[in-house]
Design a protein that fits this description.
Number of helices: 9
Number of strands: 22
CATH class of the largest domain: Alpha Beta
Shape: globular
Strand order of the largest sheet: 5-4-6-1-7-8-2-9
Helix content: 10-25%
Structural class: alpha/beta
Distance between the termini: 34 Å
CATH topology of the largest domain: Alkaline Phosphatase, subunit A
CATH superfamily of the largest domain: Alkaline Phosphatase, subunit A
Low-confidence stretches: none
Mean pLDDT: 95
Largest sheet: 8 strands, mixed
Strand content: 15-25%
Number of domains: 3
CATH architecture of the largest domain: 3-Layer(aba) Sandwich
Amino acid sequence: MTRKPNVLWVSFEDCVPFFGCYGDPVATTPTVDQLASEGCIYPNAFSTAPICAPARAAVITGMYPTSIGAHHMRTSRGEGYDAPVPHHVKCLGEYFRREGYYCSNNVKTDYQFQTPFAAWDDCSNNAHWRNRPDPEVPFFAVFNPEYTHESGMWEEHRNRPVMVHPEAKFEALTDPEAVEVPPYFPDTPKVRKSIAKNYDNIAQCDKVMAQLLEQLEKDGLADNTIVVLWSDHGPMPRGKRHLYDQGTHSPMIIRWPGVIEPGTTNDRLVSTIDLGATMLSACDITVPPHMQGKAFLGNQITTERQYVHASVDRSDGDHDMLRSVRDKRYKYIKNGFPEKPYLIWNGFRNNHPIMQEWYRCWMDGTLNETQAIMFAEKRPVEELYDTETDPWEVHNLAEDEGHQSVLDDMRQELKSWQTETGDLGLLDERVMKLLNYPGGEKPVAAEAKCLMFAGDEYGQTKAADAFSVPQHHRLQLFSPTQGNSICYTLEEGEEVFWQVFNAPIILPVGSYRLRTIVSRIGYHSSPEKVFEITVEA
């Protein structure tokens, strides 16, 4: 029987593809470049949101953040709620676990909801495929090296933690004079130094990738593992928290020995929301019908996207509402608050050295016309950019007569997408909380019940906390909480292996303590429920 492939995801946080294999002459990315030579680059990959939590919510659920109430940055810090995810939506790891995969995440989540118990076998600083209880079990392992996070460009945050050992040693490799300064930034030494630091942070993540690939090779797993490098969004001002390509263009490199031809490029239009469906398809696991992501590998591959979509709403402290549509050439942005400036207040962003330098030059009156666009007091309702002729997206074509047909098409596509996906951006955030917390408090999943199928018992009644069954039996677990997931174990202690319940349980003759926990996205997990079971000969 053919072994199921393993999956290794490495997410370079806050990273646009400043890689040598993407043609960047400044990048120091030997490992990433080697990975690309052994796999495929997807140059037209884009995120659903240019900020962490909404983007990651989309990746882990396969649903647009605007469809599941995850579009406001850090829902836990706004009105204080978990995103009101529909009951049928689960985390990607659970689908793999139900098919016998060991699933680990090291370590960032940022999903807009508390990670449900059923999502991962291990979600910790030590999570690794090497920790699976059986080396023959396939795995889905995620690593999130954080060096490239936006704050890694600030001097006091130069050395961020890396969740791989031994830790890579930081080196300043990039000459600030060699970097390209986007035309909307002032070209000053401080800006150049910060951009150079971003390149150095990417080089650091490249070392982490090298460690992981070396471990994969040492474990004899490289030939049967799909390796995916991706990112949630970009790191710099006018990128992160904005819908321009510097905020949404995601690196995407996939190596799949024996399936993907080495050293290739696929210009298919891809969204990071497609990652989940694609990995399930590649591993021959049924893609749930509610997923809005489209598989682009495996036996459930779909037709190519014509457009990718993205959104911005509340980003930390202040509210916004932007939506974008992009094809392979044009980018359309609709501003829901045209009366607001581009740079609404954001204290975290304003720590960025580039942002501070940008503000300084603005107050000094030294910005040119292009550099001053972001300081306008108002925004246009619509923006349209030709990314082929204007890759930095500084020439708005929305009022250009020669582009009215493109504008009309993009307008219609945005309306259709918002209707089809149920865009929740029009709801007040207080209503978002009430959707999930109708009584004002986060609900608790109902504990598991057990049904016996043995002798004359056919699951008519719930079993007691302690009961006996004959050797010929089946045990079924259930919970009245809609959309629940039940995990169970027969082991004792804290460091145990929990399984996701998906088929009746059969136990050998003996005595057991069946421990159960019920979880659901947006709910507190149930208290642990234990059944004392004796199986008689």
